[in-house]
Design goal:
This protein is mainly alpha-helical. It has five helices and no strands.
Length: 150
């Protein structure tokens, strides 16, 4: 007797693939526009933003390059690692300065405290309010695990 395997899903049509590519492209475009807008707003509100971005990015890259040179003894192996470290340091600086600029703009406006609290609870990437307890939590789960969810 032949086994009944899971049914294969129907292939997407050419139009569906094209629509999915267009939606993905639009999503990336929106993301880069938001990053550009955050950069421009931060640059306008914080005169030390670009110098700090350059100093921390280049400084981190230089430190990582020197350390990798002493560890490996090669001039070439440290370059990709240093570039990555510089980019990470620049992104970290960008995010912290942008957040500081955003909070300073919201300071003093009505409803700013609620807005800040909602952003801290919700975090980046979530679309719904956080529930007070996990959805699969039951009282027996918390007590059997030896700890309570708070």
């Amino acid at each position: 007797m032949a086994k009944a395997g899971p049914s294969k899903s129907a292939k997407r049509t050419r139009a569906e693939k094209k629509a999915a590519r267009a939606a993905k492209w639009q999503s990336r475009r929106d993301t880069w526009r938001a990053v550009g807008q955050a950069f421009n707003l931060t640059r306008k509100n914080d005169p030390r933003f670009i110098p700090y971005l350059v100093i921390f990015g280049v400084g981190a890259a230089a430190v990582v390059y020197v350390v990798s040179y002493f560890v490996t003894g090669s001039l070439w192996y440290g370059i990709p690692i240093a570039v990555a470290a510089g980019l990470i340091a620049a992104m970290f600086t960008f995010s912290r300065r942008a957040q500081k600029s955003m909070y300073s703009q919201a300071e003093g406006t009505p409803g700013a405290a609620v807005w800040v609290l909602q952003n801290q609870v919700r975090g980046i990437g979530t679309r719904h309010r956080a529930s007070p307890v996990p959805p699969n939590w039951t009282p027996s789960t918390g007590s059997s695990a030896g700890r309570a969810w708070s």
